[in-house]
Design goal:
By secondary structure, the chain is of the alpha+beta class. The protein is 22% helix and 39% strand. It has one domain. Strands 1, 2, 3, 4, 5, 6, 7, 8, 9, 10, 11 and 12 form a 12-stranded antiparallel β-sheet that branches.
Length: 244
């Protein structure tokens, strides 16, 4: 009876664990992109790369560098703000480190992973659901994340998703369950600003976008293994008592 109670208890714990995990509906995409242009600026004016105080942009983010990486977002996230016009146009903004995240690297050695967890520049996903009433109408999404590196450089990565279907891609402002380059042109920008006030932009465009296989969180694996171990121990105890 004790073993049965233990097994039943652990089953309830495991069921609760996976029910909790299922409440966060994370999707992750891998992507590749190519560069289209770069700019170096100071006080609103263009400057040559040689005058930029950090060597990182010129050496690790030349326009010839390709970008690869991944991003995730939670399709079950609740918007932090939303708007619906009298005519039916609607938009929503989602914010937080659990809502979305980005990591990427360049073929020239640049590496990025967002690490800002508070303030105005936490990961932000904006969704705009337009009305298909004009030839220029389109749905639009924007994902922005920020990293502050060890040298106190501010780095902002921004993905813009431009609907190709004249506002017929999104049906609501909820974060979409799927993405495809058949439906969106995706533009990439990397903003790099040292503490001295100058700033740099790398602009690019997505070449590929693929859904990554779902991977359970390490904590989920740990809890599952612990639960199975306890169930196995209870079963062995029951067998020993039966043999005695």
């Amino acid at each position: 009876m004790e073993a049965i109670k233990l097994v039943s208890g652990m089953s309830a714990v495991l069921l609760g664990l996976f029910s909790s995990a299922a409440s966060a509906e994370i999707v992750r995409y891998n992507f590749t992109a190519h560069g289209t242009s770069v700019t170096y600026n100071s006080a609103g004016q263009s400057i040559p790369p040689s005058e930029f105080p950090s060597p990182i942009p010129s050496t690790q983010l030349p326009v010839t560098a390709t970008i690869s990486g991944s991003f995730f977002y939670d399709t079950s996230a609740v918007p932090s703000s939303s708007y619906t016009s009298p005519g039916g146009y609607s938009s929503a903004t989602y914010q937080g480190v659990s809502v979305a995240g980005v990591q990427l690297s360049s073929s020239a050695g640049f590496a990025y992973q967002n690490n800002v967890t508070s303030g105005w520049n936490v990961p932000t996903f904006y969704v705009s659901n337009d009305l298909p009433t004009a030839s220029w109408s389109h749905d639009y999404m924007d994902l922005t994340t920020t990293q502050i590196d060890s040298a106190h450089n501010s780095i902002v990565v921004d993905f813009e998703f431009f609907d190709k279907n004249k506002a017929n891609t999104l049906t609501s402002t909820q974060l979409p369950a799927s993405l495809s380059l058949a439906d969106y042109d995706v533009k990439l920008s990397i903003f790099f600003a040292p503490p001295t006030g100058q700033y740099f932009f790398y602009y690019g465009a997505f070449d590929t976008l693929t859904l990554a296989p779902a991977v359970p969180e390490p904590a989920t694996y740990g809890m599952l293994l612990a639960g199975l171990g306890l169930i196995g121990a209870a079963k062995r105890r029951k067998l020993r008592r039966a043999a005695a």
